[in-house]
Amino acid sequence: LPDVGEIYSRLLDHRPVIQGEIRYFVKEFEEKRGLRELRVLENLKNTIFETNEHVLPKCEQAMHDNLNEAFKRLQAANDMIRRLQEKEHEERKLQADKRVAREEKCVAHWEEFMKEQQSKQAEVDEEHRKAMERLKEQYSDMEKELAKYASF
């Protein structure tokens, strides 16, 4: 049986080996990496301090100046666009007024033309009526003349 216990501890009980590895890993980490991690953290702290004290204020000032300049340029562009829109609106209104005036003039010419056509039509109708009367008289006279000869 002592052989079985020894076989068991050698084959299946790994605790002593694992504990040794853990102790070795902790010792290595604390001794070798501990100082390096401390230096990295110190450098990081210095970088953050430098950024907060110097870089960020410069960036904020540059951003503020650039945004003010951009805002002024946008305002100027906005004013120019507004003036252009006003000019375009005035031009459209002027064109619309001209178009309305042309349309009214065309309507007036058309009405005058139609009045002239009606008066000409009345003249032509009157001439036609007079011509018809003359023809009726002429045919009536011719019938009378024929009636004279027909009695022979």
From TrEMBL:
<dbReference type="GO" id="GO:0031083">
    <property type="term" value="C:BLOC-1 complex"/>
</dbReference>
<protein>
    <recommendedName>
        <fullName>Biogenesis of lysosome-related organelles complex 1 subunit 5</fullName>
    </recommendedName>
</protein>
<dbReference type="GO" id="GO:0030133">
    <property type="term" value="C:transport vesicle"/>
</dbReference>
<dbReference type="InterPro" id="IPR017243">
    <property type="entry name" value="Bloc1s5"/>
</dbReference>
<keyword id="KW-0175">Coiled coil</keyword>
<feature type="coiled-coil region">
    <location>
        <begin position="67"/>
        <end position="152"/>
    </location>
</feature>
<comment type="similarity">
    <text>Belongs to the BLOC1S5 family.</text>
</comment>
<dbReference type="Pfam" id="PF14942">
    <property type="entry name" value="Muted"/>
</dbReference>
